[in-house]
Amino acid sequence: MTAPLLSVEGVTLRYRTREHLITATYRVSFELYRSDRFVVLGPSGCGKSTLLKAVGGYIQPTEGRVRLNNTDVRGPGPDRVFVFQEFDQLLPWKTVRENIVFALTASGKLPRRQAEERAMHYIAKVNLTEFALSYPHTLSGGMKQRVAIARAMAMEPQILLMDEPFAALDALTRAKMQEELLQLWDETKFTVLFVTHSIPEAIRVGNRILLMSAHPGQVRAEVNSSGADAARIHQILFSEDGKGISKDV
Amino acid sequence: MSERLESERPEIFHEVSTARFDVVEKPLSAWEKLYDNGAFRKAVLLVVLALMWELYARWLGNPLLVPTFSATLGAFFASIASGALPQAAVYTISMLLKGYAAGLAIAAMLTAFATGTRIGADLLETLTAMFNPLPSIALLPLALVWFGLGAGSVIFVLIHAVLWAVALNTFAGFRSVSPTWRMVGQNYGLSRAGYIARILIPGAFPSILTGLKVGWAFAWRTLIAAELVFGVSSGSGGLGWFIFERKNQLLIADVFAGLLTVILFGLAVENLIFKTIESRTVRRWGMQI
Question: Which fold has domain A1-79+158-249?
Answer without folding.
Answer: Rossmann fold (3.40.50)
